[in-house]
Amino acid sequence: MHEHLTGNVLEADYLVDLSNVVRRPGPRGPGLYRLDQVIDALVARDHDPDVILYLVADRSLPHAGLPHADTRTLRDWEQAGLLELLGDADVRLLELAELTGLSVITRDRYRGHRTEFPWLQGNKDQFIEPFIERDEHDGHHGYHGPDGPDGRLLLRDVDMGIVDDWNISRYAEHDILKKQGVLTRFDVLERAWRCPHHACTLYDLNHGNFVLIPRIRAGEPTCELHGRRLVDEGPRPGAAAMKILVDRRCVDRFVVPSGTEVVVGRAPVDGYSLDPWLANHERLKVSRRHFALSFADGNLTIRDVSTYGTHLQLAPGAPLTVLRGTERILGVGEKVRCTRRIALTRSGRRFPPELRTKRAQVATEDNEATQ
Questions:
Q1: Can you tell me the distance from the alpha carbon of 213 to that of 207, in angstroms, rounded to the nearest whole number?
Q2: Mind listing the domains of the chain with CATH numbers?
Q3: Taking the model in full, what pTM does it have?
Q4: Which of 133, 239, 249, 363 could lock 351 by a disulfide, CB 3.0 to 4.6 Å apart?
């Protein structure tokens, strides 16, 4: 296979998401034989016996249960400069695809990367998916490689589709949890943690500007920086994550902790201020205390406390609904229209107490995307 590989991306015909390609479950298990099948299918597709590939993979791939010979081959390719092994292969692949225009061989839809790589939205000509013929319904056409015990490997062009902001955030969080090794460890996500190092605040809910998700090492929540086992500080309180959008671009985030009320306005004494994003003429239409947000039992409630009323957009393109001294639950995808340019919406990222009820749905959709 190595004669089809290059260490110079400018010489390549295709980029390959190697981890995604070789890990697909099947009777033979994961292995580089899947890359061999992809090469044969590309040769047939392009009528080019000298097709050249550039490989990018997660650094964890050599430890993913591959045959020992395949693991040695991966190490040899890395040393020879024929394979990039990275902590985050997805970002590198998408950067290269954007820079070079090369097509990517993958089954991934990169739903969590649509904000940083907006060109993914609606892309129909830069992604090619390998799949097994016997798993497909009759009448599906593609470019095929050799027969094997798993069935015949085919290739097809992929329409990446459009993913809304809610699901972009949700899948972005899903990717983060997967990389941290806690995607199925909801006992970890539902607890507060503290690093025993006296100066470390990376996991402290009461200090610092952010809280890291623990990394699981040898089955234990571990500090990313100091490598020490984290101390369990008890149940983590629930929270709703919010996004501030200016001209449809996310410029800031904040949280509404369970059991509290966060006032949002031009200049609330104790709350979230919109002032950094307001133009002079907009300040006249936003009250000092405009609306209040509270979170309980998984529901986010908005209450108007303004002089002018609070405007809600309940669906894209829908007319505005006005709250005047009343409250209602703010649903998924609904926006608070602070001004024409500025909106507030709930993020798709689910804080730990809500993750348990959502994980099956996310996992199912993620599996469907890779079939």
A1: 15
A2: 2-157 (3.40.50.11980), 165-236+351-369 (no CATH), 239-350 (2.60.200.20)
A3: 0.51
A4: 239
